[in-house]
Design goal:
heterodimer; A: 113 residues; mainly beta; B: 116 residues; 7-stranded mixed beta sheet; 4-stranded antiparallel beta sheet; 11 strands
């Protein structure tokens, strides 16, 4: 089955700096890669996703890149703000099949003012 | 629009007791999932149901059973609770098929379960 590795487990940056979180996946059939943000005590919520037919996707300060050959994808947050502090999860799934949604172990991002 | 609703929000069980966590979604999604979240372990898939009438084991199914009662509802049962099952449980739902349909997974608010 699919295995998703996520690094780093914790990340601390100064406000205004960029943050990068990296994930690798094992199943070459996976073709959908979402990122979720979970604030303390709340449910995970989707912030951006990418499908295997594109290499990069951007939404304001957030971008995701995908390297299918290397089977890794990354989340980039620019101009970080204190409200970006949360736990971020990457995940992988195969569209158009009975595939399930497997998550990485999460990255706790702290943005210091 | 309620989205995904889980009950209960909190529960304390004694070792050996049984209980069922309820989950319902009103988005007409085909796929539903149960995850447990433990510190440092992320979200681990317990069981999932790709569509009504089907269920499959995830990463950590031991000690759990599920029922896809209908398209809306997917329940998780602990037959004999153990302290190792102390966790926060999340139900989620999504669409599954097609490259053009929004496949975002929506989560319930979670159930904090403590087994003593």
């Amino acid at each position: 089955g699919e295995n998703v590795e996520q690094h780093p487990s914790t990340l601390s940056v100064q406000e205004g700096d960029s943050a990068v979180i990296k994930c690798t996946y094992s199943d070459s059939a996976s073709n959908y890669f979402p990122w979720y943000k979970q604030e303390l005590g709340k449910r995970p919520q989707l912030i951006i996703d990418i499908r295997s037919n594109v290499g990069e996707k951007k939404d304001q300060r957030i971008a995701v890149t995908l390297n299918k050959t290397a089977k890794h994808f990354s989340l980039h947050i620019t101009e970080t703000q204190p409200e970006d502090s949360a736990v971020y999860f990457c995940a992988a799934r195969t569209l158009g099949s009975q595939g399930n949604l497997i998550f990485g172990k999460g990255t706790k991002l702290s943005v210091k003012p | 629009n309620a989205g995904v609703t889980q009950t209960p929000k909190f529960q304390v069980l004694k070792t050996g007791q049984s209980m069922t966590l309820q989950c319902a979604q009103d988005m007409n999604h085909n796929s539903m999932y149960w995850y447990r979240q433990d510190p440092g372990m992320g979200l681990r898939l317990i069981y999932y149901s790709a569509s009504e009438g089907t269920t499959d084991k995830g990463e950590v199914p031991n000690g759990y059973n599920v029922s896809r009662l209908n398209k809306r509802e997917f329940s998780l049962r602990l037959e004999s609770a153990a302290p190792s099952q102390t966790s926060v449980y999340f139900c989620a739902s999504s669409e599954l098929i097609s490259h053009t349909v929004n496949t975002e997974a929506f989560f319930g608010q979670g159930t904090r379960l403590t087994v003593v």
